[in-house]
Request: fold
Amino acid sequence: MIKPIIRDIFFLSQVSEPATKQDTWVGRDLMDTLQANRDRCVGMAANMIGVNKRVIIVNVGIMDVVMYNPVITKKSMPYETEEGCLSLDGVRKTARWQNIEVEYYDAGWKKHRQEFSGLAAQIIQHESDHLEGVII
Reply:
């Protein structure tokens, strides 16, 4: 289901709760909502659609990946960049890592550990910030 984008800073600044196996519907709603906003968005966190759970979706080039309870376990090569967000107006400066490793669960609740670099790594970091209530 396509959901409206939340712009309430108070809600967005809350730390998200862990996702459970019963929260796979959140991933489906994120897929639908990202697809509806594809022209201006490459990733989303559940709080952006009004759900305070640790779920993100990230475009990694040829496909979108939904991650439940993602945790960045390694990072290297820091850099400065500017990012925008559907939930906020304008762009802001932020620090990111070129290379990261992430542990997460998929919709079947299988655990993954995967390395990402470049834009995919940047998107994961941005969406992971959302889960921590960090607003750039």
